[in-house]
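Duplicate of #3305? Posting structure anyway:
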């Protein structure tokens, strides 16, 4: 069944827990924000590097405690494929995208796309 879930939903499922009543509760400090767009914005500029994440990088991303410093994120994940004034965009192993959102030099969370768009 897990193979049929969209990648973003799978990560959300992995980052969530189930209560005894069967309701899903998002784990604290995951940083995952399903309301934010994860594909590069129209104003995003190519950063000139690979900007892709490995499976190991994705596992590290979903286990980070948030917020994080820009230095910590770029030190662990490398530089993004694209960036704009609020986010860095990395391509995932399946061709989808993740965006890491910043306020100043502080990474406040991330989002995942459910398609390669």
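Output from current build:
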């Amino acid at each position: 069944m897990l193979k049929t879930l969209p990648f973003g939903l799978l990560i959300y499922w992995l980052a969530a827990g189930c209560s005894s009543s069967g309701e899903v509760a998002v784990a604290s400090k995951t940083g995952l924000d399903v309301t934010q767009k994860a594909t590069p914005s129209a104003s995003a500029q190519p950063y000139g590097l690979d900007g892709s994440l490995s499976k190991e990088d994705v596992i590290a991303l979903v286990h980070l405690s948030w917020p994080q410093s820009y230095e910590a994120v770029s030190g662990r994940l490398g530089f993004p494929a694209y960036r704009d004034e609020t986010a860095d965009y990395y391509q995932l192993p399946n061709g989808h995208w993740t965006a890491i959102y910043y306020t100043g030099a502080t990474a406040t969370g991330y989002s995942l796309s459910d398609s390669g768009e």
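Confirmed duplicate; merging threads. The chain has three helices and eight strands. The beta strands are 16-18, 24-26, 45-46, 68-69, 82-83, 87-91, 97-103, 106-112.
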